[in-house]
Amino acid sequence: MSTCKWCDNHGFFLFTDKDGLCKKCSFKIRTEANSKLRVIKNCNELVEKTKKIDTAISNAEVMIKYLSESLKYEMKGIEIYSRSIKELLKEVINQIDEKMLLLVLQEYEITKGKIEQSKTKNSKIKQVDRFKIFTNKVLEHIKLRQIANEPLQNKILSLQNSLLILPEIKI
Fold first, then answer.
1. Which residues contact 158 (CB under 8 A, 6 or more apart)?
2. Measured distance CA(135)–CA(160) in Å, rounded
3. Residue-level pLDDT at 55
4. Is residue 117 part of a domain?
5. Contact of 76 with 5, CB cutoff 8 Å
6. pTM for the full model?
7. Does some domain include residue 169?
8. Structural domain of residue 158, as residue ranges?
9. How many CB atoms lie within 10 A of CB 63?
């Protein structure tokens, strides 16, 4: 007698696949998994290509959300992707963190250059404030995730603070 791992239906005439799913659940789960995988791949491409922090963050959040939602299948022993979802989630988060750091470092260099070119203390402070707004978006994204990255948070906070102690700021 077979029992579906997902819906718990059972019986002598219920047939299950290699993952222990009945035909109805297998179709539903595979369809959902394929749909989510397409979205994850599209979001990943956008994160890789973008130079805009808002685009990177919003697409990163979608990828993390979809992978996190898929963990429920892995917890029941249902393999929906060729790799472990936990491993994929860690890999995606590491990739996102690398992209976030790259964008923050690029913005830091741009901001530093603008501070050096600014004539007044007020315009220099505005550049620092603009950078803080930019980096606070990244910090907020990191804090809201299940898997935090303290070294990245500390690096971003260090960059924020380093702008405040630039000789150009002290007039």
1. none
2. 8
3. 93
4. yes
5. yes
6. 0.80
7. no
8. 2-164
9. 24
Residues 6+ away with beta carbon under 8 Å from 138: 53, 57, 100, 103, 104, 156
In a domain, 133, yes or no: yes
Residues 6+ away with beta carbon under 8 Å from 62? 39, 40, 43
Which residue, chain included where needed, has tokens 């924020």?
A: 160
What does the chain come to in residues? 171
Residue 144 φ/ψ region, left for φ over 0, alpha for ψ in the -120 to 50 degree band, beta for the rest: alpha
Residue 16 three-state SS: strand
pLDDT in tens, 37-93: 999 999 999 999 999 999 999 999 999 999 999 999 999 888 888 889 999 988 889
Taking 50 as the threshold, does the pLDDT of residue 171 lie above it?
no
Amino acid at residue number 105: L
Number of domains composing the chain: 1
Our CA angle for 76, 81, 83, nearest 5°, is 95
Structure tokens at 71: 């963990």
Is residue 170 a part of any domain in this protein? no
